[in-house]
Design brief:
Layout (H helix, E strand, L loop, with lengths): L1 H8 L10 E13 L2 E5 L10 E5 L5 E10 L2 E6 L11 E7 L11 E4 L7 E2 L17 E4 L16 E2 L4 H6 L2 E2 L3 E6 L5 H11 L4 E9 L1 H17 L2 E7 L4 H19 L4 E7 L1 H14 L11 H11 L3 E2 L10 E9 L8 H9 L2 E4 L2 H5 L12 E2 L2 H4 L2 H26 L8 H17 L9 H14 L5
Parallel strand pairs: 8-14, 12-17, 12-18, 13-14, 13-15, 15-17
Antiparallel strand pairs: 1-2, 1-6, 2-5, 3-4, 3-6, 4-5, 7-9, 10-11, 16-17, 18-19
C-alpha cells in the first residue's frame, strides 16, 4: 500500500480506488490442457473473478475463474500457459470497490476517443497510435440487456448502402440481422461496405478469431480511412486464447452500449459469432462440461442469447430519442450447412437473416446475397405499401427465374408458353444488374427503390 501511495505522489495516474486493500494468495495445483487448477481460492472467489498467475520465469499472466471442482478453482489464462507449473503463486486482488458487484466480469473505461481506433479485447490500442485517455466511464463487460418491458421500440429505417439489403432485407434502427455465409464468399468485403455506407453515428466492428494476415487488409482495403473515421475496431486473431476471443465480443458490445446510452445510432458488426461460440466451447470443455450438440456444451447456447439480446433499442431518454444498436452478426456456416447448431440457434434469436450463396459468388455477382432466402422480420412494417408491392413483384419474378434458369440455359425453353415465365426472362437479368454492386459504390435506400421501380415500370410489370 505504501508503494502505491508513493506512485500517486510521484504523479502517476494510479488512484486509491485502483489499489488493492487485500490480496489473497493461492497456488497452482495443476495445469491440464487450457485450464489451470488453483488451491486456496475457494470461499473467496466466484465465477468470472480475475486472478494473476506468476510463472516460474516471474512473468504475470491474467486469468479468469471459469469453474470449481470441489475445493479447487479452475481458471483459464488470457495469455499463453508457458512458464506456469504446479506450485506457482496465484494472486487475487481485492479492491476498495465492492468486487462482488463486478464478479461476473471486469469493467472497461470508455470515452469518445475510441472512435477511429483499433484495440484488443482488453481495451489496449494496437494501431501504433497515441495511448488512449485513461479518463472515461467504467462500463461492465457483462451488462444485462435493458428490461424488455421498458426498452424503446425500433427506430426508423436505416440505410445500409447496399441495394440487395436495403430492398430485400430492409433494416430498422435497433434491428438484429444474421449474415449467414460460408468461407470465401465475400463476407468481409460486405461488412466493410456496411461499415462505410451505413447511415449510423458510430460503427463498432468485432473481428473475433480473424486470420492475423487479413486484419490489416480489412482495415485498409475493405474498411478504408472513410470507414475507420467513424468506427471502433476490436481485434482478437485466431491464435488468441479462447478467453480473448470471447472477450472481443463482450468488449465490442460494451462499447456499442456506451455510445447507445448517449442517444446515438450505433451499428455493431461482429465477424463472427460462430468463432465466439467456438471460444465458449473451448472454455466450457476445459471447465469439465460435457459435450452435447456437435461437441458444444450447454453453456454455449445459454450464453449466446445473453450476448445477442444486449443489442437493440436502449431505454428511453428524457431529452432526446433513445439510442439504438443495430447489429449484424456473421455466422460462418460450416460446410455450407445452414442448419448446423450455431446457425440454427442464432436464426431463432435474431430479427432476420441474410444468406450469402457460394453459387452466386461463383457466377461473379457480388455481393453474393441470395435475396430469396434472405428475410427481415420488420421490413413489411417499415416500408410503405407501394414499396412492399415492388418487393413482392420482384421476389416473384426472381423465384420464377430461378425455376426456369436451367431450362433456358439448356435451350429447352420456348418463349410464349407462359406469360409469367416470359416476363421473368426479360426482367430478371435487369434485377440481377441492380443487385450487383461494386465495393466502392454507395447507394441510398431511396435510389435503390427508385431504380427497382423504373425496371418494373419499363417492363410493364407494374403501371
Amino acid at each position: 500500500m505504501i508503494a502505491g501511495l508513493r506512485a500517486i505522489i510521484d504523479g502517476t495516474h494510479v488512484s486509491l480506488e485502483d489499489l488493492p486493500i487485500a490480496t489473497l494468495e493461492g497456488r497452482i495445483a495443476g495445469v491440464i490442457g487450457l485450464s489451470v487448477t488453483l488451491e486456496g481460492m475457494s470461499h473467496f472467489t466466484g465465477i468470472g473473478d480475475r486472478v494473476a498467475l506468476l510463472g516460474l520465469d516471474g512473468r504475470s499472466t491474467d486469468a479468469e475463474i471459469i469453474g470449481f471442482r470441489g475445493e479447487r478453482a479452475i481458471a483459464m489464462p488470457f495469455g499463453p500457459l508457458d512458464g506456469l507449473g504446479a506450485g506457482c503463486r496465484a494472486l487475487f486482488h481485492i479492491h476498495a470497490t465492492n468486487h462482488r458487484q463486478l464478479k461476473t466480469g471486469a469493467t472497461l473505461t470508455l470515452n469518445d476517443g475510441l472512435i477511429g481506433r483499433v484495440i484488443d479485447p482488453m481495451g489496449r490500442p494496437i494501431d501504433g497510435k497515441a495511448p488512449l485517455s485513461p479518463k472515461g466511464i467504467d462500463c461492465n463487460l457483462r451488462a444485462k440487456p435493458p428490461e424488455a418491458a421498458l426498452r424503446a421500440r425500433l427506430g426508423p429505417r436505416l440505410t445500409l448502402g447496399v441495394s440487395a439489403l436495403d430492398l430485400f432485407a430492409t433494416c430498422r434502427q435497433g434491428q438484429r440481422l444474421g449474415l449467414f455465409a460460408g468461407s470465401g464468399v465475400g463476407k468481409s468485403t460486405l461488412m466493410g461496405m456496411l461499415a462505410r455506407n451505413s447511415d449510423c453515428d458510430v460503427a463498432v466492428i468485432a473481428l473475433v478469431g480473424e486470420r492475423g494476415r487479413e486484419v490489416r487488409e480489412f482495415l485498409e482495403d475493405d474498411l478504408g480511412p472513410e470507414g475507420l473515421a467513424k468506427a471502433v475496431v476490436v481485434v482478437a486473431t485466431s491464435d488468441s486464447p479462447p478467453l480473448m476471443r470471447r472477450e472481443a465480443a463482450y468488449t465490442a458490445t460494451t462499447i456499442a452500449e456506451y455510445f447507445r446510452d448517449q442517444g446515438k445510432s450505433v451499428l455493431i458488426l461482429m465477424d463472427s459469432v460462430t468463432r465466439f461460440c467456438h471460444a465458449l466451447r473451448e472454455i466450457g470443455l476445459s471447465s469439465g462440461e460435457p459435450p452435447a450438440t456437435r461437441g458444444y456444451p450447454p453453456s454455449v447456447f445459454a450464453e449466446l442469447p445473453r450476448l445477442l439480446e444486449r443489442a437493440g433499442p436502449g431505454l428511453p431518454l428524457k431529452d432526446k430519442p433513445a439510442g439504438q444498436i443495430t447489429a449484424i452478426y456473421s455466422v460462418l456456416v460450416e460446410g455450407d450447412d445452414h442448419n448446423e447448431p450455431v446457425a440454427d440457434a442464432v436464426r431463432g434469436i435474431l430479427d432476420g437473416h441474410v444468406v450469402m450463396d457460394r453459387r452466386i459468388a461463383e457466377s461473379g455477382r457480388y455481393p453474393a446475397i441470395n435475396v430469396l432466402r434472405s428475410l427481415s422480420r420488420t421490413a413489411s412494417g417499415c416500408n410503405s405499401p407501394d414499396e412492399n408491392h415492388l418487393i413482392q413483384e420482384a421476389r416473384a419474378i426472381l423465384a420464377i427465374w430461378e425455376d426456369i434458369q436451367d431450362v433456358v440455359q439448356l435451350g429447352a425453353y420456348r418463349e410464349g408458353n407462359d406469360a409469367r415465365s416470359d416476363m421473368a426472362l426479360r426482367v430478371a437479368p435487369q434485377l440481377e444488374i441492380l443487385l450487383r454492386q461494386a465495393r466502392s459504390e454507395d447507394r441510398s435506400l431511396k435510389d435503390s427503390f427508385l431504380a427497382l421501380r423504373n425496371i418494373l415500370v419499363s417492363q410493364g410489370v407494374i403501371s
